[in-house]
């Protein structure tokens, strides 16, 4: 029975044991585990999205702050009030509007507190700087009271309004402006719309915007003027969506020219996309 080979013992020479231990220790000392992948330097989708949003907001900020008008700031605030993603920019825009309104107020501090100055102030800045306009109006009232002045025409005769309407309809805008100013200031919507038309014809675009906003949305003509101004970017920042919105309002109020203007705008927008 050849079972003796199954019981052989393996004997390791002491010298070999020393060498084996040395090799083992040397191997452990020089062993470096495979490096694990650290955080990727490539942007994640979320990071890329955040960067894109920041670039968009910065572009919006530059566009608003680089143009000279105040009303686009107000339009932006109305459009994005409550938008949490734009909270910081909305706050910056609000501060910039306040700064510009105060600059206008300082300019009007040096003007005489007359009705004429007040009318000009209202026409240009009532929409965006109502508090400053009210403060100037208070100065005018105080000046009138201390100087003993009274309103010469507290109420307009029907003929005065008729002159405004007639002169505007025959496009005698120079005389129409004089005839329409007072009824417009007293709240006559048609006269206000006429002032918007007249101001636009004279290329006084901020005033055209201000008068049109006072008459809209009661006046189809004022809505049409606002649509044209937003479409062309005159007196306001160009905005085809707002232009279409005002055209539709004018159509609802029965203005046929607005239908033509809206169709042309939509056709042009469709071509631009293709």
Automatic annotation (TrEMBL):
It comes from the Bacteria. InterPro entries: Sel1-like, Sel1_AlgK, TPR-like_helical_dom_sf. Residues 1-31 form the signal peptide. The keyword Acetylation does not apply. SMART domains: SEL1. SUPFAM superfamilies: HCP-like. Keywords: Signal. Residues 140-159 are annotated as: Disordered. This is Tetratricopeptide repeat protein.
